[in-house]
Write a structure and sequence with these properties.
Layout (H helix, E strand, L loop, with lengths): L1 H9 L2 H68 L1 H8 L3 H21 L3 E8 L4 E4 L3 E4 L6 H9 L4 E4 L2 H6 L1 E8 L8 E8 H8 L3 E6 L2 E7 L11 H8 L2 H8 L4 E7 L5 E8 L4 E8 H6 L2 H43 L10 H25 L4 H10 L6 H10 L7 E9 L13 H17 L5 E7 L2 E8 L5 H22 L4 E5 L9 H13 L9 E3 H7 L9 H12 L3 H16 L4 H21 L4 H6 L2 H6 L4 H22 L1 H18 L7 H8 L3 H12 L3 H19 L4 H7 L4 H12 L3 H8 L1
Helix pairs in contact: 2-11, 3-4, 15-16, 19-20, 20-24, 21-24, 24-25, 26-27, 28-31
């Protein structure tokens, strides 16, 4: 009981490992792809933000230049106005009052036309007066910008943008011009006080203006402060002292961007542009804002990773369970049998390996048993009846009575053959006896369970032959219904349990036992009509004869010429198309003999064409084409054989020449042996691979390789054993099983080829 519980806990260990391995295989590429996606998305977003910032900066620059140049133009026009020059240069007091009034009118007009101008004033040096649009005519000592005027008089700049203490307090920037223009005499001043906050908001929110040390900087600082009435002196000074601003001032480049610390010590992206008028435009975007824009990318990436991981886990669990299901059923069935032939193990793969080794051993024993088995006397009697060895009906009746065969019943013969079993590489041709043995056992087991039909099932010429017997008083329609039911039952069983698809030929019903041979021949004739796909796989001789058409039989010479022409031009696809038309036309005849003869004629024409292409006839005959054609029974087999073997060999032989073909064929076989040396390899199997007879392959192999086929197979297996001895920790027995030897045979063959034992070889090379 404890052992069963332990097994229940451990029996799915491989399934869980498979699921985890599959999940890891899914998660790793998903995570890597997500990381790559996140990285690319972040890079694109950063580039997008920088591009937008550059566009915004360019737009701000264009706006600012229009405003600044407009103010400078107004200042220049007013400075060159004759009235302005009269006021600055003329000392006539009577005229001055009139001029002052007229000039103040102009100042009011200029201020009202430009919303950014807060104050315009003119300083008159000879009488120390100030004309202001806000205060009118006032003495300099009483004017609130007295200190600013004093600082401007000390400057030698003809015109400049500047911020003085009083201007900063009022939230203004000043554009001042010394008058008269170009004169070195007494200095007058024409100044425009600009509302910095209004101008900044017009350009873009969070825009500030710095003028210091001959630098004019307009900066858009993202989310720096909420809109207020003034720009704080302390804040402007802190901004001006930023390393990023100093870098921009010192830079000789007209534009660029870089990362530096902002006024709060956090990382930020600085982007700038300079123009020829020594004005610099700067955009500052904190890295925190840029990172906040990536939140949706991170969220989307996490969601995608999580979704793909969950979906991958579900799919891998489902597919792993489906892939494991046959293994689980095999293990459960093996443990339920509890026959003790194979020791149960916790590791499923080792247990399955042991089961396969056991099955391989049993297969060999079964083949030996079938080979050594002899038919019973009753089977011999039935075989003699089928072969028509009896010349007198009385002798047949005597032998049937002697061996217990009822001669009073109505008899019918069924011939059952397995379809395409060698073409799909499930069995080798030499295993024909194993196939017929399995076929007969299933048919016999099902026949024993029939209520009405009785009879015998024997293996005969590689097929299963059933002789069914019914009471003579039954109507033939009832007999035929029972026969079809029996055929359907064993066909289903063979398809479900052995994956065999079968074709069944049915003869007529006869009341005399001696006529069984006639029914057998009719079943053989019916089975030949497998060549016609529309007739199905169950072929009753009477139905076939009703279906026969009485049409004129004519060999399609035109299609044959088209096939030969396509092959000579190496157009294999066109040859196959014409072969399909050839076959469709032949099927209309509904005559097996006519169709078979037509295919023989076509093959003969192809061989003649090969000879005309300078291919040696003896070499062509070595391929034994006519014998291969004789073994093809169905339309699919014939079509596939011509398309895949005959046409391919035609192009191969005519294009490369016999000697090259032989060398390439042997190279292909040698490569196949090296790559499949762990499998059972036979000369017949390899000969079929390149379309030649086994005897010719044996001679050709000896000629090209200097050793026979078996010696080369042994050398390949020994080479694989050497590799496993050097690279793995498997024991000698396991290595022997992998390359298809017993441990004893491996030691013997290894000693003969390497002159040492496998164990010594491992110690010498590890």
């Amino acid at each position: 009981m404890k052992l069963n519980l332990d097994h229940a806990k451990r029996k799915k260990s491989y399934l869980y490992k498979l699921i985890w391995l599959s999940c890891i295989s899914v998660c790793i590429p998903v995570i890597l792809a997500s990381v790559a996606y996140h990285f690319v998305s972040v890079q694109k977003m950063e580039l997008h933000l920088l591009t937008e910032s550059e566009s915004s900066l360019q737009l701000m620059k264009d706006r600012a230049e229009r405003v600044i140049q407009g103010i400078e133009s107004e200042s220049l026009q007013l400075a060159n106005d004759p009235l302005t020059l009269k006021i600055i240069q003329n000392t006539n007091q009577e005229q001055s009052i009139i001029w002052h009034v007229e000039f103040l009118g102009k100042l009011s007009l200029i201020k009202n036309m430009n919303g950014f101008i807060n104050e315009v004033f003119l300083y008159i040096p000879h009488n120390d007066l100030v004309l202001s649009n806000e205060y009118g005519t006032i003495e300099r000592k009483n004017f609130k910008y007295e200190q600013d005027i004093e600082q401007l008089l000390e400057s030698d700049q003809p015109s400049q943008w500047i911020q003085h203490s009083q201007s900063i307090a009022d939230g203004h920037i000043t554009f001042a011009r010394l008058l008269p223009i170009g004169s070195s005499g007494a200095k007058g001043i024409l100044a425009f006080e600009i509302d910095a906050l209004a101008m900044g908001n017009f350009l873009e929110t969070n825009t500030i203006i710095l003028t210091k040390d001959n630098e004019f900087i307009i900066m858009n600082y993202f989310d720096l402060f909420q809109p207020t009435a003034t720009q704080e002196d302390d804040l402007l000074e802190r901004i001006y002292q930023l390393e990023g601003i100093k870098t921009i001032i010192e830079s000789t480049s007209s534009n660029g961007h870089f990362a530096a610390a902002d006024i709060y010590g956090n990382a930020a992206q600085f982007q700038y542009m300079k123009n020829v008028f020594n004005r610099t435009y700067v955009s500052v975007i904190p890295e925190a804002f840029i990172s906040s824009q990536f939140g949706w990318i991170r969220g989307m990436t996490i969601l995608i990773v999580f979704s793909f991981v969950i979906i991958g886990f579900i799919l891998t669990s489902i597919t792993s369970k489906k892939a494991y299901s046959p293994i689980e059923r095999l293990l459960e069935h093996s443990h339920s049998l509890n026959i003790g032939r194979v020791q149960a193990k916790g590791n499923e793969l080792e247990f399955i390996k042991d089961c396969l080794d056991h099955l391989s051993s049993e297969k060999e024993n079964l083949a030996i048993f079938i080979e050594n088995s002899k038919p019973t006397l009753r089977e011999k009697c039935l075989q003699q009846i089928l072969d028509r060895d009896y010349t007198r009906a009385e002798t047949v009746l005597q032998d049937c009575n002697r061996y217990g065969i009822d001669c009073t019943l109505t008899n019918i013969v069924l011939i059952v053959e397995v379809e395409n079993i060698y073409r799909i590489n499930r069995f080798l041709p030499e295993e024909k006896g194993v196939v017929s043995f399995a076929l007969v056992n299933v048919m016999l087991e099902i026949l024993r369970n029939q209520n009405v039909a009785k009879g015998y099932v024997i293996p005969y010429h590689g097929a299963g032959v059933a002789i069914l017997q019914y009471p003579s008083e039954l109507e033939q329609s009832v007999m035929h219904k029972q026969t079809l039911a029996y055929i359907e039952e064993f066909s289903t069983a063979l398809r479900d349990f052995l994956s065999f698809d079968v074709a069944v030929g049915i003869g007529r019903y006869y009341s005399h036992i001696a006529d069984v041979s006639v029914s057998y021949n009719e079943a053989q004739t019916a089975l030949q009509y497998r060549m016609f796909p529309n007739l199905g796989s169950i072929l009753f001789i009477e139905d076939i004869e009703v279906e026969k058409k009485h049409s004129i039989l004519r060999y399609p010479f035109e299609l044959e010429a088209n096939i030969i022409d396509a092959l000579e031009r190496k157009q294999e696809g066109i040859a196959v198309e014409n072969l399909t038309k050839f076959a469709d036309l032949l099927q209309m005849s509904q005559s097996y003999a006519f169709i078979l003869q037509c295919y023989h004629i076509l093959l003969s024409s192809i061989i003649v064409s090969m000879e005309k292409q300078s291919v040696n006839m003896m070499e062509i005959m070595e391929h034994n084409f006519f014998q291969q054609l004789k073994s093809k029974k169905t339309f699919k087999d014939l079509h596939a054989w011509f398309a895949e073997t005959v046409f391919t060999q035609y192009i191969y032989l005519t294009q490369n020449g016999i000697e090259e073909n032989e060398e390439l064929g042997i190279q292909y076989i040698c490569k196949y042996i090296r790559e499949h040396c762990r499998e059972d390899l036979s000369l017949v199997q390899c000969a079929e691979m390149i379309g030649i007879s086994p005897s010719y392959l044996s001679r050709l192999f000896k000629k090209e390789m200097g050793m026979n086929f078996l010696e080369y197979v042994a050398e390949s297996k020994i080479a694989e054993a050497k590799k496993l001895l050097k690279e793995t920790d498997q024991n000698i027995s396991e290595i022997a099983q992998q390359i298809g030897y017993s441990e004893r045979n491996l030691n013997r063959v290894f000693q003969r080829h390497v002159q040492t034992s496998p164990g010594n070889y491992r110690m010498q090379h590890r």
